[in-house]
Write a structure and sequence with these properties.
The protein is α+β, with helices and mostly antiparallel strands. It has three domains: 77 residues, no CATH class; 75 residues; 146 residues, Histidine kinase-like ATPase, C-terminal domain (Heat Shock Protein 90). The protein is 41% helix and 19% strand. The strands form four sheets. The chain has a five-stranded mixed β-sheet, with helices on both faces. A three-stranded antiparallel β-sheet has the order 4-3-5. A hairpin with a 2-residue loop joins β9 and β10. The longest helix has 43 residues. It starts with a strand and ends in a 5-residue tail after the last strand. The relative contact order is 0.09.
């Protein structure tokens, strides 16, 4: 603490503390919480009250009433001497923390909860996939054998067996996706150029779009848009979204157009993927990222896996329908990188 020396006119001088600017807690713009030795909350200032209310944690009484993701951060800031006699004598054992405002972003906090839920789903999915895989392979082998013994005179039987084989192949694809869900690999987050990765995704899909008379327009924000992400995982997520847009347009009789736009705003970067297709019914908007839910006739795992990839990179995805083109817009968001 700074101090000042006062000359009393004698040989002795007195040193007194300099005045320290103070801000009342109710005027502090940061989110402040005070707790006692028993980890009971004794005071929450207005910014903290507002932030916690957005997370559904109004009027918390103890540390354990705070959102689960905040509890370790708060505990980690507890003074080591909180339970010592000196601490109790000084302030009746009270201690205060600034709540980490980034974790108070409802969108970010929600994505962390989703990540935990998806990890549990992934483990269950892997178990189910392995149980399905064995019998499904046996069925495929048996059907192949039966097909080999069917001559031209059994055309109707051959068609039926082909349908069975087609469905078992669909099960095989689904089990592979389930296993990938359980172990997608840990992302290695580094500064990347979102524009470069989005451009690569468009290039990979160029031939596929051309064959289906789909126009793809890439409208990047000027200059590099730097994000914190795993390049390969992010590229996979963007290709998944372009495949989803392609599926929505391939039976569409109107304009077939996909538009990508990048954007940097605040501490996040965004990529908007819009299509001119039929859009998504309002009742399905809240369900499209759930497993086994599909509005295009697929397995219903593509968007679920895509969201998992993005959440594991501390990002996420939103959907809006209709958009300016008439279809749906999927918006990917990631942390903005401050490194060059």
């Amino acid at each position: 603490m700074a101090s000042s020396t006062v000359n009393t006119g004698t040989e002795a001088t007195a040193t007194i503390p300099a005045k320290v600017p103070a801000c009342p807690l109710d005027q502090e713009v940061r989110a402040v919480v005070l707790l006692d030795e028993e980890q009971r909350i004794v005071y929450v200032n207005p910014p903290a009250q507002e932030a916690l209310a957005r997370l559904g944690a109004e009027n918390p009484r103890t540390l354990w009433d705070l959102p689960a993701q905040l509890q370790p951060a708060v505990q980690a800031n507890r003074p080591a001497s909180a339970s010592t006699p000196e601490m109790r004598k000084l302030a009746d054992g009270l201690w205060g923390v600034y709540l980490p405002m980034r974790e108070l972003d409802p969108e970010w906090l929600g994505s962390m909860v989703e990540a935990e839920q998806m990890a549990a789903v992934g483990q269950l999915a892997a178990t189910v996939a392995k149980e399905i895989g064995g019998p499904n392979t046996s069925i495929q082998v048996a059907v192949d054998h039966l097909l080999g013994g069917c001559g031209a005179e059994h055309e109707e039987t051959r068609e039926t067996l082909q349908k069975v084989l087609s469905q078992t192949e669909r099960i095989t694809r689904l089990t592979r996706q389930l296993i990938a869900l359980a172990d997608p690999g840990r992302p290695q987050l580094k500064p990347v150029d979102l524009n470069e990765i989005a451009g690569s995704a468009c290039e990979l899909m160029e031939t596929s779009f051309s064959e289906r008379d789909i126009e793809c327009v890439w409208d990047p924000e000027e200059g590099p848009v730097r994000a914190l992400a795993d390049r390969n995982h992010l590229l996979q997520a963007l290709v998944n979204l372009l495949l989803n847009a392609r599926t929505a347009l391939q039976s569409w009789t109107g304009e077939r157009r996909i538009r990508l736009r990048s954007e940097a705003n605040g501490d996040r970067v965004y990529l908007h993927i819009e299509d001119s297709g039929p859009g998504i019914p309002a009742e399905d908007l809240s369900r499209v990222f759930l497993p086994f839910v599909s509005t295009t006739g697929g397995t219903g795992m593509g968007l679920f896996l895509t969201r998992q990839i993005l959440v594991e990179q501390r990002g996420g995805i939103r959907v809006k329908s209709p958009n300016e083109l008439g279809g749906a817009t999927f918006t990917v968001y990631l942390e903005k990188s401050t490194d060059d």
